[in-house]
Design goal:
This protein is mainly alpha-helical. The protein has a domain at 30-357: Orthogonal Bundle (Hydantoin permease), CATH 1.10.4160. It is 68% helix and 2% strand. The protein is built from 18 helices and 4 strands. The chain has helices at 33-41, 46-53, 63-85, 88-91, 95-98, 100-103, 107-137, 143-160, 162-190, 205-220, 239-267, 273-280, 285-318, 326-344, 351-380, 403-416, 429-433, 440-476, and strands at 2-3, 9-10, 421-422, 426-427.
């Protein structure tokens, strides 16, 4: 049970009726600490272990360099994630609905469509790695059956909605946290690390920045949906508590399992990270993998839930009279889940490399959006939006297409390409000059943030001057 500020209780057994509608004041509930548990509990899972393992396997970093890059990358990326989380209590709407305030009603469809692809990509990745994990410790279960089990749990939680997902995360905070501690003790203390552990790998700038970038995008990838899980908080909660609880919850919850992944990658070089984890925790691997896989289902429920809200946002933009509730959310969530399962069941054996390429593309498409959104919210409008206009066909005061924002987004994607590395398939010319080092997301942030701020404020000043001139002309008449 959770109690809202008006004294009414909500049960986790109740299916959420709201979808993308603004949350009324008398239906707000929850506490600041809910932001910590949902982001701590859902980050401790198989996929975060696999992401951490990229640092020592794919990027070849030694233990100290991998740990430093993981810590710094997560702390950096979490800033953007938490700034988005702080928007939820004030506006009370999903993040992608609020994006209409920057890009316009139709202009936002471009961004929302990219985000739907992101959710499906993460959903599929989690199904693949989670299914492999379950199959590695449960003899009668193969990878495809593991995928089906995780998908079923995820879709049920997504259908029940917000309150159940938060309750799930609170439970996983304690369960996953305890098991993570056991895994560290078992892998590195009960079984002493081999002599080659601290001498394996070579610290390189390219490897460090690649690890940093993978961890940063892990956090930035939450930006398009993080406020979906803070939008029910009472407005009096304020932005600052929501920011810090989200920041530390997601930072700590990601750094620890990623460091575990980097460690098992050094213990068993050349081994699939999931298999390496089971070997490193032999004796308690069933408990570790099963609990981490259950955590995967919680995270995937969030991906599916928010992917569904984004799909509804696109539909409502095209058909403003469309007012979906719980039943429509259930149907759309089931459809998206079915599509993801079909893709996951056909995934190849080289999925780890494919997943890393997905992270790079994801970072390239999300960085310009997060720069525009945060600059607009915090520096241009200072959180002052008319929520009702988000749901109008013509976008109200935000219009159908805000071309300056869309242009800044497209420019932001384009300027990153020369600095980008996508596996062996594409190495940007400047990235090659820098010794195969990918700094594309830094360039994207550095270009788009001031560009959008200058453009938006210049247009606002001109509009204000025009309004003043018109008012003066009317008075003279």
């Amino acid at each position: 049970m959770s109690e809202n500020h008006s004294g009414r209780e909500e049960s986790v057994s109740t299916i959420e009726s709201a979808t993308i509608q603004p949350i009324p004041v008398d239906q707000r509930h929850g506490r600041n600490r809910d932001m910590f548990t949902i982001w701590f509990g859902t980050n401790i899972m198989i996929l975060s272990v696999v992401t951490g393992a990229l640092s020592t396997t794919l990027f070849g970093q030694p233990a100290w360099s991998a740990a430093l890059a993981i810590i710094v990358g997560n702390l950096f990326g979490a800033i953007f994630m938490a700034l988005h989380s702080a928007q939820g209590p004030r506006l009370g709407v999903p993040q992608m609905v609020q994006t209409k305030g920057q890009f316009g009603s139709l202009g936002s469809i471009l961004i929302v469509a990219v985000v739907v692809c992101m959710y499906l990509g993460f959903f599929i990745s989690i199904l693949v790695f989670g299914g492999e994990s379950l199959a590695s410790v449960i003899p009668f279960l193969n990878g495809k059956a593991g995928i089906a089990v995780l998908a079923a749990i995820s879709v049920c939680a997504a259908i029940w909605g917000y309150t159940l997902i938060h309750a799930y995360a609170r439970i996983m905070t304690w369960a996953s946290g305890l098991v993570l501690l056991m895994a560290f003790i078992w892998a590195f203390i009960v079984h002493p690390v081999p002599a080659h552990f601290f001498s394996t790998g070579t610290a390189t700038l390219a490897g460090f920045l690649s690890t940093f970038g993978a961890c940063a995008v892990w956090q930035i990838a939450y930006a398009p949906y993080v406020s979906d899980y803070s939008r029910y908080l009472p407005a009096k909660t304020g932005s600052r508590p929501a920011f810090w609880m989200s920041y530390w919850g997601t930072s700590i919850g990601s750094i620890l399992p990623m460091c575990l992944g980097a460690g098992v990658g050094l213990l068993f070089p050349g081994t699939n990270p999931v298999i390496a984890l089971t070997q490193a925790t032999a004796g308690i691997s069933v408990v570790v993998v099963v609990v981490f896989s259950i955590g995967v289902a919680a995270t995937n429920a969030m991906n599916l839930y928010c992917g569904t809200l984004c799909t509804i946002t696109i539909a409502q933009t095209i058909l403003p009279r469309f007012n979906p509730r719980g039943r429509e959310r259930a149907l759309i969530a089931t459809g998206l889940c079915t599509l993801a399962v079909c893709v996951a069941l056909t995934a190849g054996s080289d999925f780890a490399a494919t997943y890393n390429n997905f992270l790079v593309l994801l970072l390239g498409s999300l960085v310009p959006w997060t720069a525009v959104n945060l600059v607009d919210y915090y520096l241009v409008r200072h959180g002052d939006y008319v929520v009702e206009d988000f749901y109008k066909r013509d976008g109200g005061r935000y219009g159908r297409v805000n071309w300056p924002a869309v242009s800044c987004y497209v420019i932001g994607v384009a300027v990153q390409l020369p600095f980008m590395i996508i596996g062996t398939e594409f190495i940007g010319p400047i990235a090659k000059m820098l010794g195969n080092t990918d700094i594309s997301f830094i360039v994207g942030l550095a270009v788009v943030s001031p560009l959008y701020y200058f453009t938006a404020t210049t247009i606002a000043r001109r509009s204000n001057r025009s309004a003043v001139l018109v008012a003066s002309a009317v008075e003279q008449c």
